[in-house]
TrEMBL record:
This protein's UniProt keywords: Membrane, Transmembrane, Transmembrane helix
Topology relative to the membrane: Single-pass membrane protein
Presence of the UniProt keyword Transmembrane in the record: yes
Gene source species: Enterobacter roggenkampii
Protein name: Uncharacterized protein YoaI
Amino acid sequence: MNDHMFVETLIISSSFFAIAVILVASVLFLERKG
């Protein structure tokens, strides 16, 4: 049972979530630093 589409969607969503977390963390860091 190798669901390639599910794995691909999971990788895309997880990478998008990671990018969003990094953006929010950097914005919070800059606001706290400024």
